[in-house]
Amino acid sequence: MKYAIFGDIHANLEAFQAVLADAEQQGCTDYVCTGDIVGYASDPNECLRIVRDMDCPVVKGNHDEEAILNTSLDGLNPLAKQAMEWTRAQLNEDERDFLTNMKLVRQVADFTIVHATLDTPGSWTYVTNKFDAMASFSYQFTQLCFYGHTHTPRIYVKGDSVEPLEEMEVNLEMGRKYFINVGSTGQPRDGDWRASYAVYDADNQSVEVRRLEYDIQKAQDKIIEAGLPEMLAHRLSLGK
Ligand code: ZN
Fold first, then answer.
1. What is the spatial order of strands in the sheet that 111-114 belongs to?
2. What is the H or E stretch that residue 93 is in?
3. Helices and strands in the chain, H and E counts
């Protein structure tokens, strides 16, 4: 079994298509989504359709949740607010039902998936350092867990202590746990504009975070054509 694990697609269809094409080339047999399918870019409906057609395990992200609420968006920053108002207006009843029914945490085969953290998955806090990762590790009952939310790929390893790796690939060792941020497919924020996702090779017990170029110009043009804030197009090039 070889899993393609992706998330934070954020309605960026071009990036998502590049990830799926690469996953196929890599020989991935299974697909798993760590949430935030919608929000920010111009193709929420099509990205949702693809995830639903794949019928893959998926967990809810904060944007997926925000998109189905009728609550005020005043707490969001102006960019996110404008994008969320636009996104809410695009979704039909059926799509809202799908988003409503997504779980916060799921176990898939021998690993776990969550969008933000394992210790408080519904409060959407961020894992930005090893201390945050340690809090999640105390609720991680599988050797391996994949998450997203920060839009920054990172591999945390728990042996005697918890440390992030420099590398973006790892061979899993018995007696250690791994908490792996797969990065963002549709809006990376680590200064690298390329789409990010992870491949978990269950037979060889290895994980690799892969980065892929995609048709960013097309994605940016569509954001502007949709009437979404221009900054949302611009930030894709910056990778932040
Ligand atoms: Zn996100």
1. 105-108, 111-114, 144-147, 177-181, 154-158, 162-164
2. helix 93-100
3. 8, 11
Give the model's pLDDT for residue 20.
Answer: 98
Ligand 1 midpoint to CA 127 (Å): 13
- The rounded distance, in Å, linking the Cα atoms of 141 and 25 is 31
Q: How far is the CA of 39 from the centre of ligand 1 (A)?
A: 8
Distance 200 CA to ligand 1 centre (A): 21
Note the residue count of the chain: 240
Number of alpha carbons in the 13 Å side-chain half-sphere of residue 191: 0
CA pair distance 141, 103, nearest whole angstrom:
17
Amino acid code (one letter) for 76: L
Confidence (pLDDT) at 72:
86
| The predicted structure's pLDDT at residue 152 | 98
**β-bridge mates for residue 6, sequence order:** 33
At 77 the pLDDT is 84
Q: How many whole angstroms from 160 Cα to the centroid of ligand 1?
A: 31
Of 157, 149, 87, 154, nearest to 123 by C-alpha is 149
pLDDT at 198: 98
Count of structural domains within the chain: 1
Ranges of residues in the chain whose predicted pLDDT is under 50:
none
Cα 149 to ligand 1 centroid, rounded to whole Å: 5
Q: What is the CATH number of the domain that holds 211?
A: 3.60.21.10
pTM more than 0.85:
yes
Distance between Cα 182 and ligand 1 center (Å): 12
Domain of 45?
2-238
Contact in structure between 210 and 198 (CB atoms under 8 Å) = yes
